[in-house]
């Protein structure tokens, strides 16, 4: 489980970035003071600088971990399919001697699969720790399947059928239904051990707080290192006083602002806050972490139990209170990804003649490229290149969005006026969806220097970055509720962000369908589309 990453001087990187571009991607988060004093025998810097920054090297490729809830869910589906298939195979083998019609045994197989699934769940056969080759535990699935088969046999008798005449089918079904799921479990356990050794099951975890609480938490994770399911990225702390270079081989990599940057640049799945109850700045710390897509946890001895909206989770044999889960994780993330890619691919095929016609019209109407590419904020506040049909004259383009388009804007071409009024200029963004930068539905991506009432968006709205926890969308909940177009007042962008956050916290496939339908019938045009 031990994981150590060399470090890069973050201050020199920041200077290089600032000299290369006049655009500041986001304002720096304020440092948060922690009252606890350092208690460490490691080397200490007295200049207030974080020692781990001097040699940082960002890991070039960090693969996404395999989701254990998804693995468990797939095993459930495999069990159900195996039991159903066992019933059908038993039907084919015993068909000549069976007294009932074939549909009866098909229905009985479905019933048995449902009963078996519930019995296996109650027996704890789908618990992730039972899917390890060294701890696979054959007794639970065998016992659960035996109970399910007994219930199915009792159902046969309850329907008035003869148990003796159906004994051949029941025996074959029980044998095959036992063998196939156990075979699948054994194969999965072997694969899980391979994934574990390859680090594919590891969740990358950062500890916020490098005082006694953080050191105690790190010690507990290291004691459970045999699980090999947690990789400690490092420790972070906001204090500006004397700081140790690290503890037990893990570097103190920076403060809360550095942690936010690392979450965006590297793949960090979870942040565990190791702080004493009542520490100053705790609410502000949580607000900063909610700006990025990451799970937020506390030690169980913290007095934030009332905020543990997502219960308690055991990570590396360490129980943690889950304060916030990143949105669209596990099955919801897969459902959203399938929805996006499938819908976008279908739309691109259907509207390809329209795309070609618009491209030709733009080429004839004014000189310049057909597409307009603009840097905008994406998930975790990372910059993405958003595609649009060019609707303005090329020589007056505004790549940073300093001046939003207004009604009767002289920069807009004749063709541009039409495609903006009908929102056809947004159609190339379906290629952004296919590429994985955007979603069909989500918060609209904003340009870098967009303002409301003369104030940058991120300065106008306190929790503006909360909308960046998921991919931006072509359309969104704010847009179909009328909050689109130019933002002349701060209230307009505040309302837009409120709708975006509502969408993130209440996401469902049905909500996406509702937004898509409203977009089709009323979202492409309107008084604010120009």
UniProtKB/TrEMBL annotation:
Family: Belongs to the bacterial sugar transferase family.
Entry keyword annotation includes Membrane: yes
GO biological process, any: polysaccharide biosynthetic process
PANTHER family (UniProt xref): COLANIC BIOSYNTHESIS UDP-GLUCOSE LIPID CARRIER TRANSFERASE, UNDECAPRENYL-PHOSPHATE N-ACETYLGALACTOSAMINYL 1-PHOSPHATE TRANSFERASE-RELATED
Recorded superkingdom: Bacteria
Name by which UniProt lists this protein: Undecaprenyl-phosphate glucose phosphotransferase
Organism expressing this protein natively: Ferrovibrio terrae
Keywords, in A-Z order: Exopolysaccharide synthesis, Membrane, Transferase, Transmembrane, Transmembrane helix
EC number: 2.7.8.31
Record's bilayer topology term: Multi-pass membrane protein
Renumbered residue ranges of the record's region Disordered: 1-32
Pfam families, per the entry: Bac_transf, CoA_binding_3
Main location: membrane
Ranges where the Bacterial sugar transferase domain occurs: 336-522
InterPro entries: Bact_transf, EPS_sugar_tfrase, NAD(P)-bd_dom_sf, Undecaprenyl-P_gluc_Ptfrase
Positions of transmembrane segments: 73-96, 102-126, 138-158, 170-194, 342-362
Keyword Disulfide bond belongs to the record: no
